[in-house]
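User: Please work through this fold.
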Amino acid sequence: MIALFCAGLATFAQLYSPQGLLPEIARAYGVGESASSWAVGAATIGVALGVLPWARLSDRVGRVRAMRWAMVCAMVIGLIAPFAPGFVSMIAIRGAEGVALAGLPAIAVTALAETIHPRALGAAVGSYVAGTTLGGLSGRIVAGLAGDPLGWRWGMATVAVLAAVATVAFLVLIPPTALRPGPGMSMVRATLQNLRTPGVAVLVAQGFLLMGGFVAAYNYLTFRLEQAPFGLSLAQVSWLFLAYLAGAATSRWVWRIARRRAPTAVLLGCVAVMLVGLAATLAPRLPIVILGLVLFTGGFFGAHSIASGLISRRAGEARSQAPPLYNLGYYAGSSLLGWLGGLAFAAWGWGGTAATIAAAAALAGLMAWGYARSNGGIAAVDA
């Protein structure tokens, strides 16, 4: 778990380090708000494209070896990305970085599922998600604090160096495993089988919708808070990412509730908290916006932790490919809805972006409720 924490720190710090720097990146390259989001979106598309191949590779060479290869590749590319000469080259490098970074989310949950007792899996996944949450938090804050006085390139470079240190720690600490998974069924067959499993398909769609809305919120709330009536600086905005601590807490906390309540009921409660928090971010007063962001973040990570823990439980023979498929939907939503949220922001401001996010979250909740209703009810669906 310590090794996976270091890997999660390195992966998610690099993946989202440009998010708090998007206004500076937009000004430096002369692009609009929506276009600048591809500094994040290109990497998340890379992750979406890479999760299934990395999962398949891990079936052949082993989980730990595949994660090591992925982390080393990501470390090298991450040190290059901040110094890309143009916007297009930066997007291309970030896409390649995302493909490399995909090795961790593609394999980590499967590795946990194969080595931890099923009754303890939910808490273990919650611990892993909490670690990745802290990685995303540290990457955003460090990039913002370094980027404010030194420029966005050095903000990203600082995160890349810290991620390299965490990667080395992962390589040293990760123990070899005696488990050697077989080749299993083909990637295409496994993917189709999972998509034909309604419980898995619903969770993949939920990952797409909830993560897409979450990334859109953090992408464009940065732009809003730099404008009147707030007028915050880049460094000041970066501190708002401390709201991620709420996610680190709820990622584990929701599984304590799920021992007494149905997991789907807990997931629906988390979606409701997201919507309440999102509504609060529309307020013109900064303390209310911060409170709303904390609620929104905690609700999202709670829902994500529940969905991540359920995906292997609902999958059948193609279980090793189910978590990567969830991650494919998760990061595809990050890229697509993260971009669409920018179009809404350009047309209608933060209110338009918030409405887009609310629609995505509400649809995810309706899908979870509909699946439970058609499979014995909320209390019985994942019993």
